[in-house]
Amino acid sequence: MTSGPTVVLVDRGVLPAAAVPLLRSDREVYAAPGVDLGLPPAPESLSGPVVLVTDDLSADPAAALAAGGATVVAAPSGSRLLDAVAVMDRLRSPGGCPWDAEQTHDSLRQYLVEECFELLEAIEDGDRGALREELGDVLLQVLFHARIAEEDAADPFSVDDVAASLVAKLVGRHPHVFAGGDPAVRDAGTQEVRWEELKQQEKRRESSVDGVATGQPALALAAKLAQRTARAGLPGDLLPRGSDTGARLFDLAVLAKLAGTDPEGELRAVARTFAEAVRTAEKSARAAGADPTRMTAADWRLHWPGHTDPEHGRG
User: Fold this and answer.
1) 223 and 263 Cβ atoms separated by less than 8 Å
2) Are residues 85 and 168 in the same domain?
3) How far apart are alpha carbons 32 and 108 in whole angstroms?
4) Same domain as 164, residue 106
5) Nearest to 82 by CA among 17, 32, 169, 129
6) Per the domain annotation, does 125 fall within a domain?
7) What is the maximum span of the chain, computed from C-alpha positions, in angstroms?
8) What is the DSSP string of 153-183?
């Protein structure tokens, strides 16, 4: 136990478990303004082996104590996930939400895909607010599917089982972190190779392309297959070749992936830039009194961002 002051951060009036021994000790315990736990209010000056219970680390006297090196005791990161699990349980339980209660793994598939793409868009836009929201929406899908799985009479598993499997996977595939070292891992590149090796061993896969999700977008699928087979030493001349559209697209995806770029992301970036240019041109036409749905080729060129029209001299 430290001899200096300790700040205990409560969340909605709930004490972190690690703080209970402190409150049962013979140390002086005070409550910061706004905290109502039956504790005496904190005096103007605090020092020595005292405990201050607060719900705001940014306000004095908690801020002053923390700045002075006081020990801060708070609930571990991730504790709010328990609230999310509880809400999902309530929604699926009798008396909860009728729509949520009717959903199945199959009926939720479309929402999982939509939420993942919305998260991807938030990342591409660099929108921090949207990123936080969309991460929550993807988390909801995980909680939803885990709750549905828990109700399966034949083969149930819970969100705790999901988390336990994830922890086991992360620990098992990072022996250089959790098992005292791994000579095969020297940098991020070798770690990526080692991850795939360990994955293949765990899953007893017979092929280098086992486990590649064939339901993903075709360009991303081609790139993933190229990456996997390249690691397996497949000669480049055995990759699909030809003059038809599919073979040419596959070839471009391979070239991009092996060059270290993401062809799916590159194409999405170009497509989004193009879509924004279309909107800009339509907005320009509308501002000029034209109907965007009736524009001719010359009209499009006239209003296209960055385009210089020889006749009108518009840039």
Assistant:
1) yes
2) yes
3) 45
4) yes
5) 17
6) yes
7) 88
8) SSS---HHHHHHHHHHHHHHT-HHHHSS--T
* Placement of tokens 């994830």 in the chain: 166
> What are the two backbone dihedrals, phi and then psi, of residue 46, each rounded to the nearest 5 degrees?
-125, 140
User: How many structural domains compose the chain?
Assistant: 4
pLDDT in tens for each of the 315 residues of the chain? 457 889 988 877 777 888 888 888 888 899 898 887 888 999 888 888 889 999 888 888 888 888 888 888 887 778 789 889 999 999 999 999 999 999 999 999 999 999 999 999 999 999 999 999 999 999 999 999 999 999 999 999 999 999 999 999 888 888 877 877 777 777 877 877 777 777 777 777 778 888 888 988 899 999 999 988 888 888 988 998 888 999 999 999 999 998 989 999 899 899 999 999 999 999 999 999 999 999 999 999 999 998 765 555 444
List, edge to edge, every strand of the sheet that includes 6-9: 28-31, 50-54, 6-9, 71-73
pTM of the model: 0.66
Structural domain of 62: 6-73
Task: Go through 193-227 and write b for each residue having 16 or more CB atoms within 10 A of its CB, e for each that does not.
Answer: ebebebebeeeeeeebeeeeeeeeeebbbbbbbbb
How do 28-31 and 50-54 pair as beta strands?
A: parallel
21 domain residue, yes or no: yes
How far is 90 from 97, CA to CA, in rounded Å? 8
Sign of CA dihedral 89, 93, 98, 99: positive
Distance, in Å, from the CA atom of 303 to the CA atom of 284, rounded to the nearest integer, reads: 6
Q: Could you tell me if residue 188 is inside a domain?
A: no
Residue corresponding to tokens 């709930």: 14
The bridge status of strand 6-9 relative to strand 50-54 is parallel
Which of 83, 187, 68, 194 lies closest to 140 in space, CA to CA? Answer: 83
Are residue 147 and residue 167 in the same domain, yes or no? yes
